[in-house]
Amino acid sequence: MVAVRASREAVVGAIEEAKEQGGEEEEGRSAVSVASVNGPSSVVLSGSEGAVNAVLEQLGSSSVSHRRLVTHNHLSEMRSSSLRIDESI
Q: Which of helix, strand or coil describes residue 21?
């Protein structure tokens, strides 16, 4: 997960651009998503490292402040497959 100082609109646009340029997908969905919006210019990304890096590249990571948080979190879409496993127990 990565905290990014950018608007939700800018981040969603960067996700779309990264997907168009061959970004990663997992089980038919993007391997990166917006995990939370904490303010007008405070967004948290969640997903695979490669997909998150592609979004940061689209945002111009040198000019956009960002900070890595954790590898996976309960907010991540990547957990949905593990949640299905938990439900079957």
A: coil
